[in-house]
Specification:
- This protein has 203 residues and is mainly α.
- Helices cover 80% and strands 0% of the residues.
- It has nine helices and no strands.
- The longest helix is centred in the C-terminal third of the chain and has 34 residues.
């Protein structure tokens, strides 16, 4: 039992490092994967396998750095990238409408939208939003996102323990359920968007 726990502990600690890399490197379709990993991180914090601060920092730095990169690409290299990704046009129009309606608060909110995570900072880079404004609000948004999702995983563990008692015996099952839920959500949105795309191409 001790060797199994030790191995599991090492795997989860490795996840702290991978957490930032996965969130940094995600394409749009990995929205639920990013949240899924962070929820698992919050649950691991509750179980005592990870520290809360390292999980938050890994998620914050990964999200913040990735979005700063796409903002820079939008500001400096938008023409070249749009030639490679013409399919972004429809979503860019949606984001521009958001900017017209609510302005810079879009920077704080876009992490919580499906399918717009990568493209929004890119479009903001093409807009008149000042770099300093984006740097500050992007930092606040990244921290709010990391805290909210990780806290959700932590309180998920707290709620389970209140309901089931000692959940050490079920933790692998819980991690599996979180993983399965994230993959199911991803699959649902992937096939729904694919179906919508096929419907439009057929009209």
């Amino acid at each position: 039992r001790k060797s199994v726990d030790s191995a599991f502990h090492e795997c989860v600690n490795l996840g702290t490092f991978r957490l930032g890399l996965r969130i940094l490197g995600r394409p749009d379709r990995d929205l639920f994967e990013g949240e899924m990993i962070l929820v698992m991180g919050g649950f691991a914090v509750y179980q005592g396998y990870l520290g809360f601060l390292p999980v938050i920092l890994a998620a914050f730095l990964g999200s913040y750095s990735g979005d700063q990169l796409f903002f820079f690409l939008g500001r400096r290299h938008s023409g070249r990238i749009l030639k490679l990704l013409p399919s972004w046009g429809r979503r860019m129009a949606v984001i521009n409408r958001w900017l017209e309606r609510i302005g810079t608060p879009v920077i704080l909110l876009f992490r919580f939208t499906y399918g717009f995570r990568t493209i929004t900072p890119f479009v903001l880079g093409m807009s008149s939003v000042r770099s300093r404004t984006f740097i500050i609000l992007n930092g606040l948004g990244a921290m709010a996102w990391a805290l909210a999702i990780a806290a959700g995983g932590y309180f998920f563990g707290f709620t389970l323990e209140k309901a089931l008692g000692n959940i050490r015996h079920y933790e692998r099952l819980v991690f599996g359920v979180i993983l399965a839920a994230g993959l199911a959500a991803w699959a649902f949105h992937f096939f729904r968007s694919r179906k919508a795309g096929e419907g439009k191409s057929g009209t």
